[in-house]
Amino acid sequence: MQSTMKAWSVTSLGEPKDVLQLVDAPTPEPGPRQVLVRVLASAANFPDVLLCRGLYQIKPELPFTPGSELCGEVVAVGSEVTRLAVGQRVLGLCALPYGGFADLALMDEHTTYPAPASLDDAQAASLFIGYQTGWFSLHRRTVLQPGETLLVHAAAGGVGSAAIQLGKAAGARVIGVVRGPEKAEYAKQLGADVVVDRRTEDFVAVVKDVTEGRGADVVYDPVGGETYQRSTKCIAFEGRILVIGFAGGEIQSAALNHALVKNYSIIGVHWGLYNAQNPAAVAACHDELTRLADVGAVRPFVSETFGMAAVPTAVQRLADGETVGRLVFQP
């Protein structure tokens, strides 16, 4: 008789609080190049919201269990796995439809890495997507230089908070844009040199003032829409705007004539593609992030952990923009 596990299953598409159902699911079997892990922690990410809504670029067949990244203990390995062993503590991407909001999850060997000993389970679960995205954005898609000004939008979110820490580690001056005083305080704790509460301040004016009219050398934009459009008003000569995503819900159109006359670059960042196109680069990035974590230069800020029963509520709070720091599921 096949064993079962507790898992949150999406059986129809919609808001997380409406479509997540707790079920007794069959324990999955790892494929030849997969590992089965006991979930120690699984960080909630905005892609989990989009998966529930059916709006993410990856659209798994129903039903599926979300939870995009995790830290876990390997309990079984596939027949062709060579890098990982039973009992090892690992982090990385989940292999849908068997995501991290469950007792057990599947992971593909090529997107699974040793978890840094310097991080606890919740921190390690938060190191992969946001920090990899930030590192590839700031060090591969562009080359952030010491002394440059980095403008980070949604600076209290998962990818934004990682960008603050990575920007400071690279020697940049970081301006973080947030919504509300609680998020502003969080961005300061992360190390942002200047924090803008967009509810009460105009980030364009602040950037111009702080840089004496020059503007931001690099803009890190996971929001899109009007945020992107306004960022073009405070981008420096030879600046770079990194297009990370569209959490604001509106995909902007770029005015290329404006980019021409102001001499700035618009750079798209789809980190997930590197896992298939250049996994060696992802592995090298993980090694660097592990080093930075070990020396204390980066450390995911986990504001809250939650148990099995609270998964729909927590993911809905993330969807509604009500969270500060990382929310992490721990069974």
TrEMBL record:
Pfam families the record matches: ADH_N, ADH_zinc_N
Keyword Nuclease listed: no
Domain of life: Bacteria
Residue ranges occupied by any Enoyl reductase (ER) domain in the UniProt entry: 17-329
Cited InterPro entries: ADH-like_C, ADH-like_N, ER, GroES-like_sf, NAD(P)-bd_dom_sf, Quin_OxRdtase/zeta-crystal_CS, Zn-ADH-like_protein
Keywords for this protein: Oxidoreductase
GO MF annotation list: quinone reductase (NADPH) activity; zinc ion binding
PROSITE patterns per UniProt: QOR_ZETA_CRYSTAL
Top EC class, one word: oxidoreductase
SMART domains assigned: PKS_ER
Gene3D superfamilies linked: Medium-chain alcohol dehydrogenases, catalytic domain, NAD(P)-binding Rossmann-like Domain
CDD domains for the chain: QOR1
EC number(s) reported in the record: 1.6.5.5
Protein known as: NADPH2:quinone reductase
Source organism of this protein record: Nocardioides kongjuensis
